Amino acid sequence: MKSKITLTHLKAAVLASVITLPAAQSALADEVIEQIELGLELYQEQEYGSAITELEFAIEDMRKMMSGLIAQTFPEAPGGWTAQEASSGSSGGAAAMFGAGGTSLERVYQQEDGNGQLTASMMLDSPLIQSMGAMFSNPAIIAAQPNMERVRLGREAAVVKWEPERSRAEVTLMLDGRIMMQVKGENLGSQEIAVDLMRDWDLAAVREQSAR
Known about the structure:
disordered N terminus; alpha+beta; elongated
């Protein structure tokens, strides 16, 4: 009876997510349900290795679905800029997402009438975040860095680094101790466009979609 209750809960969670997913991901959700059901059948038949394999495939597909929802939280392009679709970042692909290395997603923005470029990225549940968080929460370290300052964004605070001689900006926001969000810009006239893009990021949606 316990297995049936667990399966019902898993199916309900997957089906609830389908409401907010596009058609392609809805089809993926159907596959997840099938994988979970087959995994349970194999478990009940004591074919544990095969059951683990099916459930691992289901977990990986759910990671892809969750990443798709997180990608929707990235801010829209500012006026005079265009944006690409958010995708898995260069530090990890789909196979590594939500695994030991955490999630890495990014979105690139291009200035329409200039050479400016912005890259918004998010890293979630990576071991790197803890060490980075310790650095960015230390006022002495920030004060010792040239061209670096702390900027308030609503109730959160970001660290901004502006290199005027290189026209580069970097805005970093640590969220809830497990999410690192960054906006890096090149060929910029000032740091403000990078700060404003970070300000436009829907932090409530990020928290909702990345909740454990």
